[in-house]
Amino acid sequence: MATDLSNWSATTDNDVFQKKETHPFGDPADKKKQQVHIDGNKRTGNFTVSATGVKLGGLEGFAAGKDIPIYSYDATLDKISILNANYYNNMFKGNRTRSDTLNNLKKQTKIDVLSIALSKSNTQDGLNDYIRLQNLSSYASASNIVDVAPQTITARTSSSTRSNTFSSANSAVRPINMGTLSSSDFSLRTITSKTDGNTQLSSTGAQYFRYPEGRIPNLGYDYIQITSYKYVPGLNLPDPPEPAAAGAAAPDSAGASSYINTNRRVTRSSQILNETPENIIQLPMIGSLSDTTAVSWNSDTLSEINMIAGQIAYNRITTSDNPASAVLDAAMDVMKTGSELLKNENVKKQLMAYFAGQAASAPNFVQRATGKIINNNMELLFNGPTLRSFNFSFKLRPRSESESVLCRNIIKSLKRDSAPKTTATNLFLDTPNIFLIEYMYQAQQGITPTYTQHPFLNKIKPCALTSINVNYTPDGSYMTYETNGSMIGYDLNLTFQEIEPVYRSDQEAEYTQDNMGF
């Protein structure tokens, strides 16, 4: 919804606009209201609140008819300076109602000042002013609200030939094209425009895409960041040795001990994240964010006869000096134990029926003959970890020609990075890129902005992009924009799967950290 700026008037200073309103003064029971005017600067974001009209708190040493400054706000420092304690205390301090009045006035003034800057952004200087305000941490929440052109501003009455109203900018603010980035540009607070007007994808180097247009970290809300990296194999195999010269002794092969308890397989995440990022995509937060952590367990059976035989074999092998001959000795021990069991009248009939069934390939013979089954000692056993999957559904709705190109480039970038790569010989295929997904969190307003992993959302290990689904007619009908033929919207559905499981050591490493863990 557009911001109503009809109460704001221009002044003799092209950067300053003024608005009048009234607020309660003194004891609420008196129901007195003091008229004030607010002078907001669209270039700096600063504003001053002054008492005007009838001065309910007295003249305070000012001449009759002179406005009394009450407080000023510095947008760079995000700080209020009290200019008149009497008026400030009677209007904005002392109880919850007055405090709310102060906070609401400050919040709405920021929104209005930023909207004024947006309405004047159809010139280069005006655009620079608007971007400057957006980049102030004190205007972060206001930037999140001001997303459409505001309504008109009332002109200051003068004898000049200016028109009676300043029309708001109908066209979208020109996007900052990030162009091609180097590895040193991935600090989101320092990214600056590298090129102007280049909307083509680069076949090499890292690129930065963000939807919607505008620098998402400076808009004051959290977002999802998807970064692609080149795949790194998990095993680091040495190069094949050179063929030995004629008559030379062949090199000794590595002993079995050299492959045991070695760190030949380091953490996959650390291997991949040490590489230079290839592409960065920033998209708005969506609903239905979840993670499912599962471990595979399966029921397993081991018959009592097999368990006895296994224990006998294990004891023989572990107490023998010659493991090879111990295997034969173990087999003899098993047969000897079986013979002894057949002498036991309590189990003789069942065992004979069991072995008869095995000889006749009739595994259920013992049950039919005796009404019993061999104890299978069923137990639930750990079968291994599982790999987590994550599904994301983004609704891309371009609002301008440049944003339609941006949506297309985001889709093309994801398709390219998830596709397998051919090699020069075509004998092999290289693995597609791997993706790191991060839920990015911005600190509260009034604090120097920091953008980190969200402290209350799960972390995600590097993932493969296993599926991309793009719906080009999300509303069930074919519709395009007249300017360049872009579809009016795209539904982008992505399925990722982590390339390695989450182990206990991963969770323990995050256990004392300010985050949700994996």
Structure overview:
The chain has 518 residues and is an alpha+beta fold. The chain has three domains: 159 residues, no CATH class; 208 residues, no CATH class; 76 residues, no CATH class. The strands form six sheets. The protein has a six-stranded antiparallel sheet with strand order 1-2-3-4-5-6, with helices on one face. The chain has a six-stranded mixed sheet with strand order 9-10-12-11-18-19, covered by helices on one side. A three-stranded antiparallel sheet has the order 15-21-20, with helices on one face. Strand 18 and strand 19 form a beta hairpin. Helix 2 runs antiparallel to helix 3 and helix 6 packs antiparallel against helix 7. The protein is elongated, with a radius of gyration of 37 Å. About 10% of the residues have low confidence.
SS field, number of helical segments: 11
Q: What is the helical fraction, as a range of percent?
A: 25-40%
| Spans where pLDDT lies below 50 across 5 or more residues | 147-198
If you compute it from the alpha carbons, what radius of gyration comes out, rounded to the nearest whole angstrom? 37 Å
Please describe the structure with a list of short key phrases separated by commas or semicolons:
single chain, 518 residues, alpha+beta, six-stranded mixed β-sheet, 11 helices, 25% helix
Map the helices and strands.
Layout: E1 8-10, E2 16-25, E3 32-41, E4 47-51, E5 68-74, E6 79-82, H1 85-92, H2 96-119, H3 124-134, H4 140-145, E7 153-154, E8 165-166, E9 180-181, E10 206-210, E11 223-229, H5 268-273, E12 279-284, E13 295-300, H6 304-318, H7 323-341, H8 348-359, H9 365-370, E14 379-385, E15 389-396, H10 401-418, E16 421-422, E17 429-430, E18 434-442, E19 451-453, E20 463-471, E21 490-498, H11 504-510
Parallel strand pairs: 10-12
Antiparallel strand pairs: 1-2, 2-3, 3-4, 4-5, 5-6, 7-8, 9-10, 11-12, 11-18, 13-14, 15-21, 16-17, 18-19, 20-21
